[in-house]
Known about the structure:
The structure holds 2 protein chains of 2 kinds. By secondary structure, chain A is α/β, with parallel strands linked by helices. Chain A has 2 domains: about 5-145 and about 285-340, 4-Layer Sandwich (Metallo-beta-lactamase, Chain A), CATH 3.60.15; about 155-285, 3-Layer(aba) Sandwich (Rossmann fold), CATH 3.40.50. Chain A is built from 9 helices and 19 strands. In chain A, a hairpin with a 2-residue loop joins strand 1 (about 10) and strand 2. The radius of gyration of chain A is 21 Å and the shape is globular. Chain B is α+β, with helices and mostly antiparallel strands. Chain B has 19 helices and 23 strands. In chain B, helix 1 (about 5-15) crosses helix 9, helix 4 (about 55-65) runs parallel beside helix 6 and helix 10 (about 150-160) packs across helix 11.
Amino acid sequence: MPHPESWMRVTPQGLYCVPGDFFIDPGRAVPRAIITHGHADHARPDHDHVLASAETLGIMQARMGEGRAGRQRQVAVPGEVVRHRDVEIRLVPAGHVLGSCQVVLDWQGSRIVISGDYKRRRDPTCAPFEPVTCDVFVTEATFGLPVFRHPDAAAEVARLLESLRLFPDRAHLVGVYALGKAQRLIALLREAGWDRTIYLHGALLKLCELYEAFGVKLGPLAPVPAPAKRGAGGLLAGEVVLAPPSAEATAWIRRLAEPLVCAASGWMRVRQRAKARGVELPLIISDHADWDELLATIDEVQAPEIWVTHGRDDALVHAMALRGLRGRALHLLGRGEEDEDPVPPETAPAETATEQIA
Amino acid sequence: MTLPAFAYLLERLAFTPGRLAKLALLRQWFATQPDPDRGIGLAALTGELVFRAAKPGLVRELVAARTDPVLFDLSYDYVGDLAETVALIWPPRAGVNAPPPGLAEVVEAIEITPKAALPELLAGWLDALDANGRLALIKLVTGGLRVGVSARLAKTALAEWAGQDVAEVEEVWHGLTPPYLDLFAWLTGQGPRPSSEDRPVFRPLMLAHPLEEPDFPSIGPETHRAEWKWDGIRVQLSATPGGRALWSRGAEDISGGFPEILAAMDFRAVLDGELLVMRDGEVAPFADLQQRLNRKVVSQKMQATHPVGVRLYDILFDGDEDLRALPFDARRARLEGWFARTRPGRMDLSELIPFASMAELEAIRAGAREAAIEGLMLKRADSEYAAGRQKGKWWKWKRAPLGVDAVLMYAQRGHGKRSSFYSDFTFGLWRPDGQGGQELVPVGKAYSGYTDQELLWIDRWIRNNTTARFGPVREVEKSLVIEVIFDAAQRSGRHKSGVALRFPRIARLRTDKPAEEADRLATLEAMIVGEEAAAD
Lengths: 358, 536
């Protein structure tokens, strides 16, 4: 049986499958790519051929435009095997965002599973993670430190609802990523009984519509209205408003009634990170596996060797050594450094600014 | 009611910047919590409740027995705060189904538990709590609870919740002890007003505005009096028939930390002044005073090595007589007369600085290089002692800092709030390298002065321009110029450059300036106190 290192290489573009001659989540345009999910640090534009789930392809087209989401697009149905050259390719749900999948590769009796980003918590907006046993498990480690243990997301949503009761005169502005977190938070709010209209920053509209088109029910949504006159404020007191994490730093926010800035992110677990961002109500809601879930997943897939793509690989590799497993840090480029918030490009201030004009 | 409820209040308060929102959170706490928890919570928030039962070392030992040392160190390095790291990393214990402890239960148990049994007690509680509850517990029992709620704010919230005047609450406050059952009984209409018996009461302080250039023409020797602005902390001394108290600027009773001042208050008056560490009449730097702050009790040794005194600058009450409506000049005369009569120990008078013109005042200010002088205070001669910050009556005029354009050389991750940011910067200036070229030599470190936005920008710049790593320190491309300001430059044998800076901080990022155009070491040397004349 060939050792996985002989057929899976780390290149400047990212992970490269030698016998299949394709990349997984390459950082720049390549002839042939498999994409785990639609976040911008995994799905890049202008590949010649893209294999991904139907939802991921849909998300890529919505974000990049029809012309840039891969010249040829091949839908892979999760669970079904696609053969390419001698490599068997199978996508398996990763539970991260709508359409997110792990990539299971079999070649000459050797199996590598590339997790992409994943979580183990229930998410009403996407299919749950399925562990697959393998020889090498390529994992993320965004929250790869034992200080990251995400609390129950429903309890965090309850905190938001309690704040709405205590401060009914203030618009509650929650910073969320446009893909995944926004829709999951909406779904969690609906489960908690919040049936009022939820207001969206323009940057979130398109993907919420796409989720609805894929059958994910989000309830009444509306764009944040423009102020009656330029610079006027006071809108949406007591309402939930979702926006990209950087929106609170822009003039856009001035239209809201005494906005109470919240953020829904796993990073909110560490107080000083929340404080540094000026968040008044941190909500610890993450779409990534926490420390315990990383370890549990590694146990479940029974791989003797664990490769860590990005995140806190030092701690995870050390924890692997304690368990007698071989851990290897891949240091993939372009996946955000150790402790930086992985802010997808669409949330960059520049684009938020465009959004205000639109 | 349980500790998690208190933990929740603490967390909301810690993240809530607005005063009104803080008041709303506190009102809700008083309204929803039962006795005695709400009173204990109040005491904990206002710093009245202090434990020294558990040392941080004990908490560290408890967690060390439960975690891998490498994983703990990586975590601590990331989080930056010991209590928070422990609260987050504490491993859940299977099979624990004890309910989380109540606030009153914790306070009571801590007081009666023998030292040897404390670790087990604490570990049991930590097992039963979630991360927020663990953090609150650790901060509480190690005395590290800092929530950004002043006693004044807490009293205001109490007054608002009960529909009382805050002055009323203030008046009955002194002499009450946690959990304030009689206070809550009175505020909820179920008991009599607690007696205050002429207890000392905090009187709102008169505050100063920063003086700006456009205000200069309004200042003159006929209308204004000048004093040094000393770099200590503002205090109010209050001695009445009912007791003595030393109040901080924020109405905190800090009497416990300064017993020697309390002992010297053998009079009946309310005075305004600056608390300073003074040795033989010489004011020590603020860093020395810092050693004495935030202590509920103070050792004999500390009293000997860091002796404090008060430099008086105003008198609010002489005996029962309220002097606050008198103009400054009249109050000053009363203060001097009172001082000559009373001769209190550990106190002196803030001298008036004579001046003939604004120009002369500018020269006096520019000439001040003593470390303990922050600048000048300018007070209108005819102004009453007015509560709060009223424009045009008192001015503060800090002395201008010195500055150089330096090159960023190394950066280190900060602590606490900045634990995940490269926020401590080592910067250098050019000097001849002895081979006909120029080399950078480090001249100081700065970790303040920038805005949050600038910090984010520098942090990113550092990550993108790292050339080498030494543990938590990164060496960077020598290409970013920063304008560094500082209060003084001094000769130092301990620094490679031979110069030490006092309170260096970052004024501005000079992204417009190439590194080669940053300042030379000689420029800085010319600023050294007492050597100005030698400079070229």
